[in-house]
Amino acid sequence: MIEQPFFRKAARFFRKLQPRARLAICELPVTLIVVGLAIAAPTFWPGLIQNLWFVTGVLLHGILFLGCLLVPWERLPPSLSLTIPILDLVALCFTRNGAFNAIPSLSALALFPVIWLSASGMLSRTSMILSFVGPFFIALPPVIAHLPNPTASDISSVVLLPLMMFAVAASIRLAGSNARVQERRVNRRDHALRQLLAASRKRETLLKTILDTIDVGIVAVDSNGETLLVNGQQKAFLQLAAPAEGAPELAKHDQLVFGQDRQTPLRPEQSPVQRAARGETYSDYLVWFGAGAEQRAISTTARGMKNDIDDGFDGAVIVFRDVTDVVDALAAKDELVANVSHEFGSPLTSILGNLDLVLRGSQELRPVTRLGLEVAERNAERLRALVEDLLLSAAAVESVHLRRTDLAGLVENSLVSAQAQASAANVGLVADVPAPLWADADPLRLGQALDNLVSNAIKYSPGGGQVSIRATLKDGWVQLHVQDTGMGMTTEEAARIFTRFFRTSAARQAAIPGIGLGLSITKSIVERHGGSISCISKPGGGSTFTVAIPAGTPSEPLQEDAPALY
Protein backbone atom coordinates (compact mmCIF):
# COMPACT_ATOMS: atom_id res chain seq x y z
CA MET A 1 0.00 0.00 0.00
CA ILE A 2 3.01 2.31 0.54
CA GLU A 3 4.99 1.36 -2.58
CA GLN A 4 2.30 2.32 -5.07
CA PRO A 5 2.23 6.04 -4.19
CA PHE A 6 6.05 6.04 -4.11
CA PHE A 7 6.36 4.56 -7.60
CA ARG A 8 3.64 6.83 -8.94
CA LYS A 9 5.49 9.86 -7.60
CA ALA A 10 8.74 8.53 -9.06
CA ALA A 11 7.11 7.99 -12.45
CA ARG A 12 5.67 11.51 -12.44
CA PHE A 13 9.10 12.89 -11.44
CA PHE A 14 10.82 10.92 -14.24
CA ARG A 15 8.36 12.17 -16.89
CA LYS A 16 9.01 15.77 -15.89
CA LEU A 17 12.77 15.46 -16.52
CA GLN A 18 14.47 16.70 -19.68
CA PRO A 19 15.42 14.04 -22.31
CA ARG A 20 19.14 14.27 -21.41
CA ALA A 21 18.46 13.64 -17.73
CA ARG A 22 16.14 10.72 -18.51
CA LEU A 23 18.77 9.06 -20.77
CA ALA A 24 21.50 9.62 -18.20
CA ILE A 25 19.39 7.98 -15.48
CA CYS A 26 18.69 4.98 -17.73
CA GLU A 27 22.39 4.61 -18.57
CA LEU A 28 23.60 5.19 -15.02
CA PRO A 29 23.30 1.57 -13.63
CA VAL A 30 25.52 0.02 -16.35
CA THR A 31 27.98 2.91 -16.14
CA LEU A 32 28.32 2.64 -12.36
CA ILE A 33 28.89 -1.13 -12.50
CA VAL A 34 31.53 -0.83 -15.26
CA VAL A 35 33.29 2.07 -13.51
CA GLY A 36 33.26 0.07 -10.29
CA LEU A 37 34.87 -2.89 -12.08
CA ALA A 38 37.49 -0.60 -13.62
CA ILE A 39 38.33 0.83 -10.19
CA ALA A 40 38.48 -2.61 -8.58
CA ALA A 41 40.45 -4.25 -11.42
CA PRO A 42 43.98 -3.18 -10.36
CA THR A 43 43.40 -4.69 -6.94
CA PHE A 44 41.44 -7.86 -7.71
CA TRP A 45 42.14 -8.53 -11.39
CA PRO A 46 45.43 -6.85 -12.33
CA GLY A 47 45.49 -8.43 -15.76
CA LEU A 48 42.31 -6.64 -16.88
CA ILE A 49 44.09 -3.30 -17.09
CA GLN A 50 46.29 -4.67 -19.87
CA ASN A 51 43.32 -6.28 -21.69
CA LEU A 52 42.56 -4.17 -24.78
CA TRP A 53 39.01 -5.53 -25.08
CA PHE A 54 38.12 -4.64 -21.49
CA VAL A 55 39.68 -1.17 -21.68
CA THR A 56 37.88 -0.49 -24.96
CA GLY A 57 34.56 -1.52 -23.40
CA VAL A 58 35.10 0.72 -20.38
CA LEU A 59 35.92 3.68 -22.60
CA LEU A 60 32.85 3.03 -24.75
CA HIS A 61 30.59 3.01 -21.65
CA GLY A 62 32.09 6.30 -20.50
CA ILE A 63 31.61 7.85 -23.93
CA LEU A 64 27.98 6.66 -24.01
CA PHE A 65 27.24 8.21 -20.61
CA LEU A 66 28.80 11.51 -21.67
CA GLY A 67 26.73 11.30 -24.87
CA CYS A 68 23.57 11.03 -22.79
CA LEU A 69 24.45 14.33 -21.10
CA LEU A 70 25.93 16.30 -23.99
CA VAL A 71 23.89 15.41 -27.08
CA PRO A 72 20.78 17.68 -27.52
CA TRP A 73 18.30 14.80 -27.53
CA GLU A 74 15.32 17.15 -27.16
CA ARG A 75 15.97 18.34 -30.72
CA LEU A 76 16.19 14.84 -32.17
CA PRO A 77 13.48 12.25 -32.88
CA PRO A 78 12.72 10.10 -29.81
CA SER A 79 13.64 6.87 -31.66
CA LEU A 80 17.30 8.02 -31.99
CA SER A 81 17.68 7.70 -28.21
CA LEU A 82 17.65 3.90 -28.72
CA THR A 83 21.18 4.13 -30.13
CA ILE A 84 22.41 4.29 -26.52
CA PRO A 85 21.18 0.79 -25.45
CA ILE A 86 22.19 -0.66 -28.86
CA LEU A 87 25.72 0.69 -28.42
CA ASP A 88 25.61 -0.58 -24.82
CA LEU A 89 25.33 -4.09 -26.24
CA VAL A 90 28.41 -3.42 -28.41
CA ALA A 91 30.35 -2.03 -25.44
CA LEU A 92 29.30 -5.01 -23.30
CA CYS A 93 30.63 -7.34 -26.02
CA PHE A 94 34.09 -5.80 -25.51
CA THR A 95 33.82 -5.57 -21.71
CA ARG A 96 32.47 -9.09 -21.15
CA ASN A 97 34.85 -10.85 -23.52
CA GLY A 98 37.82 -8.88 -22.19
CA ALA A 99 36.99 -9.95 -18.63
CA PHE A 100 35.51 -13.39 -19.45
CA ASN A 101 38.21 -15.40 -17.70
CA ALA A 102 38.15 -13.15 -14.60
CA ILE A 103 34.40 -12.32 -14.40
CA PRO A 104 32.39 -14.87 -16.43
CA SER A 105 29.00 -13.55 -15.18
CA LEU A 106 29.54 -10.09 -16.70
CA SER A 107 27.23 -11.08 -19.57
CA ALA A 108 24.28 -10.54 -17.19
CA LEU A 109 24.75 -6.77 -17.72
CA ALA A 110 23.05 -7.25 -21.08
CA LEU A 111 19.82 -7.27 -19.13
CA PHE A 112 19.93 -3.45 -18.76
CA PRO A 113 20.00 -2.48 -22.45
CA VAL A 114 17.51 -5.29 -23.24
CA ILE A 115 15.04 -3.87 -20.69
CA TRP A 116 15.63 -0.36 -22.06
CA LEU A 117 14.92 -1.46 -25.65
CA SER A 118 11.83 -3.45 -24.70
CA ALA A 119 10.30 -0.90 -22.36
CA SER A 120 10.74 2.01 -24.77
CA GLY A 121 7.74 0.96 -26.86
CA MET A 122 9.54 2.09 -30.04
CA LEU A 123 10.87 0.00 -32.94
CA SER A 124 9.18 -3.10 -31.54
CA ARG A 125 10.45 -5.63 -34.10
CA THR A 126 13.96 -4.20 -34.19
CA SER A 127 14.22 -4.12 -30.42
CA MET A 128 13.05 -7.75 -30.16
CA ILE A 129 15.63 -8.87 -32.73
CA LEU A 130 18.40 -6.91 -31.03
CA SER A 131 17.39 -8.38 -27.66
CA PHE A 132 18.31 -11.80 -29.09
CA VAL A 133 21.14 -10.93 -31.48
CA GLY A 134 23.02 -8.63 -29.08
CA PRO A 135 23.39 -11.18 -26.25
CA PHE A 136 24.16 -13.86 -28.86
CA PHE A 137 27.18 -11.92 -30.15
CA ILE A 138 28.22 -11.11 -26.58
CA ALA A 139 28.35 -14.87 -25.76
CA LEU A 140 29.78 -15.96 -29.15
CA PRO A 141 33.54 -14.97 -28.94
CA PRO A 142 34.45 -17.63 -26.28
CA VAL A 143 32.90 -20.33 -28.48
CA ILE A 144 34.95 -19.16 -31.47
CA ALA A 145 38.12 -18.95 -29.34
CA HIS A 146 37.73 -22.58 -28.17
CA LEU A 147 37.07 -24.09 -31.60
CA PRO A 148 37.15 -26.82 -32.60
CA ASN A 149 36.44 -28.04 -29.05
CA PRO A 150 34.18 -25.48 -27.33
CA THR A 151 33.31 -26.20 -23.73
CA ALA A 152 29.82 -27.01 -22.48
CA SER A 153 29.81 -23.69 -20.64
CA ASP A 154 30.52 -21.81 -23.86
CA ILE A 155 27.72 -23.60 -25.71
CA SER A 156 25.21 -23.12 -22.89
CA SER A 157 26.08 -19.42 -22.72
CA VAL A 158 25.64 -18.84 -26.44
CA VAL A 159 22.27 -20.63 -26.33
CA LEU A 160 20.76 -19.71 -22.96
CA LEU A 161 21.81 -16.06 -22.73
CA PRO A 162 20.10 -14.95 -26.00
CA LEU A 163 17.00 -17.01 -25.19
CA MET A 164 16.76 -15.61 -21.65
CA MET A 165 17.18 -12.03 -22.85
CA PHE A 166 14.65 -12.60 -25.62
CA ALA A 167 12.18 -14.01 -23.06
CA VAL A 168 12.74 -11.00 -20.82
CA ALA A 169 12.24 -8.66 -23.76
CA ALA A 170 9.06 -10.48 -24.83
CA SER A 171 7.64 -10.36 -21.30
CA ILE A 172 8.40 -6.65 -20.95
CA ARG A 173 6.97 -5.98 -24.41
CA LEU A 174 3.75 -7.85 -23.59
CA ALA A 175 3.45 -6.18 -20.22
CA GLY A 176 4.14 -2.80 -21.80
CA SER A 177 1.59 -3.41 -24.55
CA ASN A 178 -1.01 -4.44 -22.00
CA ALA A 179 -0.18 -1.40 -19.89
CA ARG A 180 -0.51 0.89 -22.91
CA VAL A 181 -3.83 -0.72 -23.83
CA GLN A 182 -5.06 -0.19 -20.27
CA GLU A 183 -3.74 3.35 -20.32
CA ARG A 184 -5.60 4.07 -23.54
CA ARG A 185 -8.77 2.64 -22.02
CA VAL A 186 -8.28 4.69 -18.90
CA ASN A 187 -7.64 7.78 -21.01
CA ARG A 188 -10.79 7.14 -23.05
CA ARG A 189 -12.81 6.65 -19.89
CA ASP A 190 -11.23 9.70 -18.34
CA HIS A 191 -12.07 11.71 -21.44
CA ALA A 192 -15.65 10.41 -21.41
CA LEU A 193 -15.98 11.18 -17.70
CA ARG A 194 -14.59 14.66 -18.24
CA GLN A 195 -17.14 15.21 -20.99
CA LEU A 196 -19.93 13.91 -18.76
CA LEU A 197 -18.70 16.12 -15.92
CA ALA A 198 -18.58 19.15 -18.20
CA ALA A 199 -22.07 18.37 -19.52
CA SER A 200 -23.33 17.82 -15.97
CA ARG A 201 -21.86 21.13 -14.83
CA LYS A 202 -23.40 22.83 -17.83
CA ARG A 203 -26.81 21.32 -17.06
CA GLU A 204 -26.40 22.24 -13.40
CA THR A 205 -25.60 25.82 -14.35
CA LEU A 206 -28.58 25.90 -16.72
CA LEU A 207 -30.89 24.46 -14.05
CA LYS A 208 -29.63 26.91 -11.43
CA THR A 209 -30.12 29.80 -13.86
CA ILE A 210 -33.65 28.67 -14.65
CA LEU A 211 -34.54 28.15 -10.99
CA ASP A 212 -33.17 31.57 -10.07
CA THR A 213 -35.00 33.20 -12.99
CA ILE A 214 -38.54 31.98 -12.30
CA ASP A 215 -40.69 33.96 -9.88
CA VAL A 216 -41.68 31.01 -7.67
CA GLY A 217 -39.79 29.65 -4.69
CA ILE A 218 -38.62 26.04 -4.85
CA VAL A 219 -37.36 23.83 -2.02
CA ALA A 220 -36.27 20.20 -2.44
CA VAL A 221 -35.80 17.90 0.56
CA ASP A 222 -34.69 14.28 0.88
CA SER A 223 -36.48 11.48 2.71
CA ASN A 224 -34.94 12.61 6.02
CA GLY A 225 -36.12 16.18 5.59
CA GLU A 226 -32.64 17.50 4.81
CA THR A 227 -32.59 20.39 2.34
CA LEU A 228 -31.23 19.55 -1.11
CA LEU A 229 -32.00 22.76 -3.01
CA VAL A 230 -33.30 26.27 -2.40
CA ASN A 231 -33.63 28.72 -5.29
CA GLY A 232 -33.17 32.47 -5.20
CA GLN A 233 -36.86 33.39 -5.00
CA GLN A 234 -37.35 31.12 -2.00
CA LYS A 235 -34.41 32.82 -0.28
CA ALA A 236 -36.21 36.12 -0.85
CA PHE A 237 -39.39 34.67 0.70
CA LEU A 238 -37.37 33.47 3.70
CA GLN A 239 -35.83 36.90 4.05
CA LEU A 240 -39.35 38.34 4.05
CA ALA A 241 -40.34 35.92 6.83
CA ALA A 242 -37.23 36.61 8.91
CA PRO A 243 -37.86 38.39 12.22
CA ALA A 244 -37.06 42.08 12.27
CA GLU A 245 -33.89 43.17 13.99
CA GLY A 246 -34.32 44.07 17.60
CA ALA A 247 -37.05 41.50 18.28
CA PRO A 248 -35.61 39.57 21.26
CA GLU A 249 -38.86 37.75 21.98
CA LEU A 250 -38.36 35.65 18.82
CA ALA A 251 -35.88 32.81 18.78
CA LYS A 252 -33.46 32.78 15.91
CA HIS A 253 -35.23 29.80 14.27
CA ASP A 254 -38.66 31.50 14.44
CA GLN A 255 -40.17 32.78 11.23
CA LEU A 256 -42.95 35.26 10.58
CA VAL A 257 -45.19 32.65 8.95
CA PHE A 258 -48.91 32.67 9.73
CA GLY A 259 -52.02 30.68 8.97
CA GLN A 260 -54.84 31.79 6.75
CA ASP A 261 -56.14 34.25 9.33
CA ARG A 262 -52.84 36.20 8.88
CA GLN A 263 -52.40 36.38 12.67
CA THR A 264 -51.97 32.89 14.13
CA PRO A 265 -48.31 31.74 13.86
CA LEU A 266 -48.02 28.54 11.87
CA ARG A 267 -47.00 25.60 14.03
CA PRO A 268 -43.87 23.74 12.86
CA GLU A 269 -45.75 20.55 11.95
CA GLN A 270 -48.09 22.60 9.73
CA SER A 271 -45.29 24.23 7.74
CA PRO A 272 -45.32 23.31 4.02
CA VAL A 273 -41.80 21.84 4.10
CA GLN A 274 -42.41 19.64 7.13
CA ARG A 275 -45.71 18.42 5.71
CA ALA A 276 -43.96 17.48 2.47
CA ALA A 277 -41.09 15.83 4.37
CA ARG A 278 -43.67 13.56 6.03
CA GLY A 279 -44.76 12.39 2.59
CA GLU A 280 -47.88 14.53 2.21
CA THR A 281 -49.01 15.72 -1.22
CA TYR A 282 -51.06 18.89 -1.37
CA SER A 283 -51.97 21.84 -3.58
CA ASP A 284 -52.82 25.49 -2.94
CA TYR A 285 -51.96 25.38 0.77
CA LEU A 286 -52.11 29.07 1.69
CA VAL A 287 -49.79 30.65 4.29
CA TRP A 288 -48.73 34.22 4.98
CA PHE A 289 -45.10 35.36 5.11
CA GLY A 290 -44.00 38.51 6.91
CA ALA A 291 -45.97 41.00 8.97
CA GLY A 292 -47.60 44.37 8.61
CA ALA A 293 -47.81 46.08 5.25
CA GLU A 294 -45.15 43.75 3.78
CA GLN A 295 -47.12 40.58 4.51
CA ARG A 296 -47.53 38.35 1.46
CA ALA A 297 -49.89 35.46 0.69
CA ILE A 298 -47.96 32.37 -0.43
CA SER A 299 -49.68 29.42 -2.09
CA THR A 300 -47.70 26.18 -1.67
CA THR A 301 -47.79 22.89 -3.55
CA ALA A 302 -45.85 19.70 -2.73
CA ARG A 303 -45.15 16.58 -4.73
CA GLY A 304 -43.21 13.54 -3.53
CA MET A 305 -40.29 11.81 -5.25
CA LYS A 306 -40.03 8.02 -5.55
CA ASN A 307 -36.85 5.97 -5.47
CA ASP A 308 -35.95 3.43 -8.15
CA ILE A 309 -35.72 0.45 -5.79
CA ASP A 310 -39.15 -0.01 -4.26
CA ASP A 311 -40.98 3.21 -5.25
CA GLY A 312 -40.65 4.35 -1.65
CA PHE A 313 -40.64 7.96 -0.52
CA ASP A 314 -37.34 9.59 -1.51
CA GLY A 315 -37.99 13.25 -0.81
CA ALA A 316 -40.24 16.02 -2.04
CA VAL A 317 -40.30 19.26 -4.01
CA ILE A 318 -42.25 22.20 -2.59
CA VAL A 319 -43.24 25.19 -4.74
CA PHE A 320 -44.01 28.59 -3.17
CA ARG A 321 -45.99 31.13 -5.24
CA ASP A 322 -46.89 34.69 -4.30
CA VAL A 323 -50.67 35.06 -4.73
CA THR A 324 -51.15 38.22 -2.71
CA ASP A 325 -52.70 40.10 -5.65
CA VAL A 326 -55.11 37.24 -6.32
CA VAL A 327 -56.13 37.00 -2.65
CA ASP A 328 -56.62 40.77 -2.46
CA ALA A 329 -58.73 40.71 -5.62
CA LEU A 330 -60.91 37.89 -4.28
CA ALA A 331 -61.29 39.73 -0.97
CA ALA A 332 -62.35 42.90 -2.80
CA LYS A 333 -64.85 40.92 -4.86
CA ASP A 334 -66.30 39.24 -1.78
CA GLU A 335 -66.54 42.59 -0.03
CA LEU A 336 -68.42 44.02 -3.00
CA VAL A 337 -70.78 41.04 -3.02
CA ALA A 338 -71.35 41.40 0.72
CA ASN A 339 -72.04 45.14 0.44
CA VAL A 340 -74.43 44.74 -2.48
CA SER A 341 -76.21 41.84 -0.80
CA HIS A 342 -76.52 43.82 2.39
CA GLU A 343 -78.05 46.75 0.46
CA PHE A 344 -80.56 44.33 -1.08
CA GLY A 345 -81.56 43.06 2.36
CA SER A 346 -83.46 46.11 3.62
CA PRO A 347 -85.68 46.62 0.52
CA LEU A 348 -86.45 42.90 0.39
CA THR A 349 -87.44 42.90 4.06
CA SER A 350 -89.75 45.84 3.41
CA ILE A 351 -91.25 44.17 0.34
CA LEU A 352 -91.86 40.89 2.13
CA GLY A 353 -93.35 42.67 5.16
CA ASN A 354 -95.81 44.63 3.09
CA LEU A 355 -96.79 41.59 1.01
CA ASP A 356 -97.43 39.67 4.22
CA LEU A 357 -99.60 42.49 5.56
CA VAL A 358 -101.65 42.62 2.37
CA LEU A 359 -102.10 38.85 2.17
CA ARG A 360 -102.99 38.40 5.84
CA GLY A 361 -104.85 41.66 6.47
CA SER A 362 -107.38 41.66 3.69
CA GLN A 363 -110.05 39.02 3.19
CA GLU A 364 -111.64 40.69 0.16
CA LEU A 365 -108.83 40.09 -2.36
CA ARG A 366 -109.93 38.59 -5.60
CA PRO A 367 -108.44 35.16 -6.34
CA VAL A 368 -106.44 36.50 -9.28
CA THR A 369 -104.99 39.30 -7.16
CA ARG A 370 -104.18 36.94 -4.28
CA LEU A 371 -102.46 34.52 -6.70
CA GLY A 372 -100.32 37.35 -8.10
CA LEU A 373 -99.33 38.53 -4.62
CA GLU A 374 -98.40 34.97 -3.55
CA VAL A 375 -96.18 34.61 -6.64
CA ALA A 376 -94.51 37.92 -5.77
CA GLU A 377 -93.99 36.74 -2.17
CA ARG A 378 -92.44 33.42 -3.27
CA ASN A 379 -90.03 35.13 -5.62
CA ALA A 380 -89.13 37.72 -3.00
CA GLU A 381 -88.41 34.89 -0.54
CA ARG A 382 -86.27 33.22 -3.18
CA LEU A 383 -84.40 36.47 -3.75
CA ARG A 384 -83.86 36.88 0.01
CA ALA A 385 -82.48 33.32 0.21
CA LEU A 386 -80.07 34.17 -2.61
CA VAL A 387 -78.94 37.32 -0.79
CA GLU A 388 -78.40 35.35 2.42
CA ASP A 389 -76.33 32.78 0.53
CA LEU A 390 -74.22 35.53 -0.99
CA LEU A 391 -73.66 37.08 2.43
CA LEU A 392 -72.77 33.65 3.81
CA SER A 393 -70.35 33.07 0.94
CA ALA A 394 -68.58 36.34 1.67
CA ALA A 395 -68.44 35.55 5.39
CA ALA A 396 -66.98 32.10 4.74
CA VAL A 397 -63.70 33.54 3.49
CA GLU A 398 -63.21 35.58 6.64
CA SER A 399 -60.72 34.41 9.23
CA VAL A 400 -61.41 31.29 11.25
CA HIS A 401 -60.54 30.99 14.92
CA LEU A 402 -58.98 27.62 15.65
CA ARG A 403 -59.20 25.90 18.99
CA ARG A 404 -59.24 22.33 20.28
CA THR A 405 -62.64 21.01 19.22
CA ASP A 406 -64.36 17.63 19.57
CA LEU A 407 -65.52 16.84 16.04
CA ALA A 408 -67.77 14.05 17.34
CA GLY A 409 -69.89 16.72 19.02
CA LEU A 410 -70.06 18.76 15.79
CA VAL A 411 -71.23 15.71 13.84
CA GLU A 412 -73.89 14.95 16.45
CA ASN A 413 -75.18 18.54 16.37
CA SER A 414 -75.29 18.50 12.57
CA LEU A 415 -77.33 15.28 12.51
CA VAL A 416 -79.77 16.62 15.12
CA SER A 417 -80.27 19.79 13.07
CA ALA A 418 -80.89 17.78 9.90
CA GLN A 419 -83.22 15.21 11.46
CA ALA A 420 -86.43 17.02 10.52
CA GLN A 421 -85.29 17.52 6.90
CA ALA A 422 -84.23 13.86 6.69
CA SER A 423 -87.55 12.58 8.09
CA ALA A 424 -89.48 14.66 5.59
CA ALA A 425 -87.39 13.25 2.72
CA ASN A 426 -87.56 9.66 4.05
CA VAL A 427 -83.77 9.57 4.44
CA GLY A 428 -82.03 7.72 7.25
CA LEU A 429 -79.05 9.25 9.09
CA VAL A 430 -76.16 7.07 10.30
CA ALA A 431 -72.99 8.17 12.12
CA ASP A 432 -69.79 6.23 12.80
CA VAL A 433 -67.52 8.68 14.60
CA PRO A 434 -65.20 7.81 17.50
CA ALA A 435 -65.67 10.03 20.54
CA PRO A 436 -63.89 12.14 21.44
CA LEU A 437 -62.25 13.13 18.15
CA TRP A 438 -60.07 16.18 18.74
CA ALA A 439 -58.79 18.59 16.10
CA ASP A 440 -57.85 22.24 15.81
CA ALA A 441 -60.96 23.78 14.24
CA ASP A 442 -63.39 26.67 14.36
CA PRO A 443 -66.53 24.91 15.66
CA LEU A 444 -68.86 27.54 14.16
CA ARG A 445 -67.37 27.47 10.64
CA LEU A 446 -66.71 23.74 10.52
CA GLY A 447 -70.20 23.06 11.85
CA GLN A 448 -71.53 25.22 9.03
CA ALA A 449 -69.56 23.14 6.51
CA LEU A 450 -70.91 19.88 7.95
CA ASP A 451 -74.46 21.24 7.87
CA ASN A 452 -74.02 22.09 4.19
CA LEU A 453 -72.73 18.62 3.33
CA VAL A 454 -75.47 16.77 5.26
CA SER A 455 -78.18 19.06 3.93
CA ASN A 456 -76.99 18.55 0.35
CA ALA A 457 -76.80 14.78 0.83
CA ILE A 458 -80.45 14.73 1.99
CA LYS A 459 -81.63 17.19 -0.67
CA TYR A 460 -80.05 15.22 -3.52
CA SER A 461 -81.60 11.93 -2.37
CA PRO A 462 -85.18 12.70 -3.55
CA GLY A 463 -86.20 9.06 -3.59
CA GLY A 464 -85.17 8.44 0.00
CA GLY A 465 -82.16 6.42 1.07
CA GLN A 466 -79.43 6.81 3.64
CA VAL A 467 -76.82 9.42 4.58
CA SER A 468 -73.87 8.26 6.65
CA ILE A 469 -71.02 10.17 8.29
CA ARG A 470 -67.76 8.39 9.10
CA ALA A 471 -64.61 9.78 10.66
CA THR A 472 -61.04 8.44 10.79
CA LEU A 473 -57.76 9.67 12.27
CA LYS A 474 -54.62 8.78 10.30
CA ASP A 475 -51.10 10.25 10.15
CA GLY A 476 -52.14 13.42 12.01
CA TRP A 477 -55.16 14.09 9.80
CA VAL A 478 -58.87 13.79 10.55
CA GLN A 479 -60.99 12.65 7.62
CA LEU A 480 -64.77 13.12 7.60
CA HIS A 481 -66.72 11.14 4.98
CA VAL A 482 -70.29 12.18 4.14
CA GLN A 483 -71.88 9.54 1.91
CA ASP A 484 -75.34 9.40 0.38
CA THR A 485 -77.24 6.99 -1.87
CA GLY A 486 -78.81 9.72 -4.00
CA MET A 487 -78.76 10.61 -7.68
CA GLY A 488 -74.98 11.11 -7.95
CA MET A 489 -73.21 12.88 -10.82
CA THR A 490 -70.72 12.33 -13.61
CA THR A 491 -66.94 12.54 -13.15
CA GLU A 492 -66.83 15.83 -15.08
CA GLU A 493 -69.53 17.32 -12.86
CA ALA A 494 -67.76 16.08 -9.71
CA ALA A 495 -64.61 17.95 -10.82
CA ARG A 496 -66.62 21.23 -11.00
CA ILE A 497 -68.95 20.70 -8.06
CA PHE A 498 -67.10 23.17 -5.80
CA THR A 499 -67.32 26.01 -8.36
CA ARG A 500 -69.60 28.85 -7.40
CA PHE A 501 -73.11 28.71 -8.89
CA PHE A 502 -72.46 25.34 -10.53
CA ARG A 503 -75.36 22.88 -10.50
CA THR A 504 -75.54 19.43 -12.08
CA SER A 505 -77.86 18.72 -14.96
CA ALA A 506 -79.73 16.11 -12.88
CA ALA A 507 -80.40 18.68 -10.12
CA ARG A 508 -81.76 21.17 -12.66
CA GLN A 509 -83.97 18.58 -14.30
CA ALA A 510 -85.33 17.46 -10.93
CA ALA A 511 -86.04 21.12 -10.03
CA ILE A 512 -84.18 20.76 -6.73
CA PRO A 513 -83.98 24.24 -5.17
CA GLY A 514 -80.56 25.87 -4.77
CA ILE A 515 -78.17 28.27 -6.50
CA GLY A 516 -74.87 26.33 -6.23
CA LEU A 517 -73.13 28.24 -3.43
CA GLY A 518 -73.23 25.75 -0.56
CA LEU A 519 -70.32 23.52 -1.63
CA SER A 520 -68.23 26.54 -2.63
CA ILE A 521 -68.73 27.94 0.87
CA THR A 522 -67.84 24.55 2.38
CA LYS A 523 -64.62 24.37 0.33
CA SER A 524 -63.58 27.85 1.50
CA ILE A 525 -64.16 26.93 5.14
CA VAL A 526 -62.19 23.68 4.87
CA GLU A 527 -59.27 25.39 3.13
CA ARG A 528 -59.27 28.04 5.86
CA HIS A 529 -58.59 25.18 8.25
CA GLY A 530 -55.56 24.14 6.18
CA GLY A 531 -57.41 21.11 4.82
CA SER A 532 -58.93 19.84 1.61
CA ILE A 533 -62.21 18.47 0.32
CA SER A 534 -62.87 16.01 -2.49
CA CYS A 535 -65.82 14.29 -4.13
CA ILE A 536 -66.27 10.81 -5.60
CA SER A 537 -69.54 10.10 -7.38
CA LYS A 538 -71.24 8.25 -10.20
CA PRO A 539 -74.68 8.76 -11.77
CA GLY A 540 -77.31 6.86 -9.79
CA GLY A 541 -74.74 5.58 -7.32
CA GLY A 542 -74.64 8.38 -4.79
CA SER A 543 -71.77 10.64 -3.77
CA THR A 544 -69.07 10.65 -1.12
CA PHE A 545 -67.55 13.92 0.08
CA THR A 546 -64.31 13.65 2.08
CA VAL A 547 -63.07 16.48 4.29
CA ALA A 548 -59.47 16.26 5.57
CA ILE A 549 -58.14 18.70 8.18
CA PRO A 550 -55.00 18.59 10.37
CA ALA A 551 -55.57 17.01 13.77
CA GLY A 552 -53.08 19.46 15.29
CA THR A 553 -50.97 16.95 17.23
CA PRO A 554 -48.09 18.50 19.23
CA SER A 555 -44.71 18.37 17.53
CA GLU A 556 -41.16 18.24 18.78
CA PRO A 557 -39.50 21.66 19.10
CA LEU A 558 -37.12 22.76 16.42
CA GLN A 559 -33.41 22.81 17.22
CA GLU A 560 -32.07 26.31 17.55
CA ASP A 561 -29.39 25.76 14.93
CA ALA A 562 -31.81 24.36 12.34
CA PRO A 563 -33.61 27.29 10.64
CA ALA A 564 -36.99 26.46 9.14
CA LEU A 565 -37.34 26.70 5.38
CA TYR A 566 -41.14 26.58 5.46
Q: Quick gist of this model?
A:
It is built from 16 helices and 13 strands. It is of the alpha+beta class.
Based on the model shown, name its key terms.
15% strand, 16 helices, 566 residues, alpha+beta, single chain
Describe it.
55% of the residues lie in helices and 15% in strands. With 566 residues, it is an alpha+beta fold. The strands form three sheets. Strands 2-1-6-5-4-3 form a six-stranded antiparallel beta sheet, sandwiched between helices. Strand 12 (532-537) and strand 13 form a beta hairpin. Helix 4 packs parallel to helix 6, helix 6 runs antiparallel to helix 7 and helix 12 (407-424) runs parallel beside helix 13. The longest helix is centred in the first third of the chain and has 62 residues, at 152-213. The model is unreliable at 246-252 and 554-562 (pLDDT under 50).
Question: Which stretches are poorly predicted, pLDDT < 50 over at least 5 residues?
Answer: 246-252, 554-562
Strand percentage lies at 15-25%
Number of helical regions: 16
How much is the radius of gyration in Å? 48 Å
Secondary structure: elements and pairs:
Blueprint lengths: L2 H14 L2 H26 L7 H19 L12 H16 L12 H9 L4 H22 L6 H62 L3 E5 L5 E4 L1 H10 L15 E2 L13 H6 L4 E8 L6 E11 L6 E10 L1 H38 L5 H30 L6 E4 H18 L2 E6 L5 E4 L1 H17 L5 E10 L2 E8 L6 H6 L8 H5 L8 H11 L3 E6 L5 E8 L16
Parallel strand pairs: 8-10
Antiparallel strand pairs: 1-2, 1-6, 3-4, 4-5, 5-6, 7-9, 10-11, 11-13, 12-13
Helix pairs in contact: 2-3, 2-4, 3-4, 4-5, 4-6, 5-6, 5-7, 6-7, 10-11, 11-16, 12-13, 13-16
